């Protein structure tokens, strides 16, 4: 099953309407996205909790890394650069952190609030190689802006 992005965006908008708590929003988005597509093996957020440090937030799937410095891994690269990381083969990514040995490809998007401040990253892992497209990245970027851009 592949994500139906229009339905997913509408569902997330309806579920998060009026909510401003970051953790509640992250939990809802992680749950809805994780169950929307068979490619998604781990879906969750890492929150900015200190300068140059991410800590695990709400997620679906097996356990994740508890903390990730901005200087390491795909999530760190997204936080450090402020750019989407679309990684078709995690083993070829310099400094990849193997939180789960099953991960083959990864999509990580920076998450910003309405003031443009980085509040975290949204991480989707797949146990399939080259599982993500630019369309996936663009659609999730729009959903994240819709949800977190208002807080």
From TrEMBL:
InterPro entries, per database record: GAF, GAF-like_dom_sf, Phosphatase_reg/MetRdx
SUPFAM superfamilies: GAF domain-like
Residue span, GAF domain: 21-147
One Pfam family cited in the UniProt record for this chain: GAF
Superkingdom assignment: Bacteria
Family, as annotated: Belongs to the free Met sulfoxide reductase family.
PANTHER family: FREE METHIONINE-R-SULFOXIDE REDUCTASE, GAF/PUTATIVE CYTOSKELETAL PROTEIN
Descriptive protein name: GAF domain-containing protein
